[in-house]
Design a protein that fits this description.
With 168 residues, this protein is an alpha+beta fold. The protein has 3 helices and 11 strands, in the order βββββββαββββαα. The chain starts with a strand and ends in a 5-residue tail after the last helix.
């Protein structure tokens, strides 16, 4: 039997026997979007107070009440990069569960192929947009420049899809 031991508008903490987990509001429809240029990815560099640091990330965010993963992806992409796409322009490549041991949350992973010039907006918490050439992605991951779990998961899904190791 589970019981809510704490809640706020963003999440609640649930006790189930001796274990606790976090349930995000709208946590079933989060989204992460890889902005794909011809031979590069566009990321945002943003400050994350929870870890008190700057992080290079794919645009991502939590769904609002009754918002689908696609709608969340479109909204977050526009808020964080200024890029407006039609839902048909997004390609869903998978789903990730960011912390199966502590959180009841999932994020749909999308690729947004963009051929037009990028114009960065000052989104919520976004410090700058960063374009990373394909040839630099592995180095940035291996060196610890990209450490965000959502971004790493999205890149892994993308690379598997591109190399043919998936039936997607």
């Amino acid at each position: 039997m589970s019981e809510t031991v704490y809640s706020n508008p963003f999440f609640r903490v649930v006790k189930n026997g001796p274990m606790h987990h976090v349930e995000e509001s709208g946590g079933d429809n989060n989204a992460v979007v890889l902005v794909r240029l011809e031979d590069a990815f566009a990321f945002i560099k943003t400050h994350r107070p929870a870890n008190d640091g700057m992080f290079i990330e794919a645009p991502r965010g939590g769904a609002e009440l009754d918002e689908t993963g696609v709608a969340c992806a479109i909204r977050e992409l526009c808020e964080e990069t200024g890029i407006s796409l039609h839902p048909d322009e997004l390609i869903q490549i998978g789903v990730v569960y960011p912390n199966t041991g502590m959180m009841r949350s999932k994020a749909d992973v999308f690729v947004a192929p963009v051929s037009r010039p990028l114009i960065s907006m000052d989104g919520a918490g976004t410090e700058q947009m960063l374009v990373v050439a394909d040839s630099q992605i592995e180095h940035m991951v291996a060196s610890g420049a990209i450490v965000d779990g959502f971004t790493l998961s999205a890149l892994a899904l993308y690379m598997c899809r591109e190399s043919g190791c998936s039936n997607v």
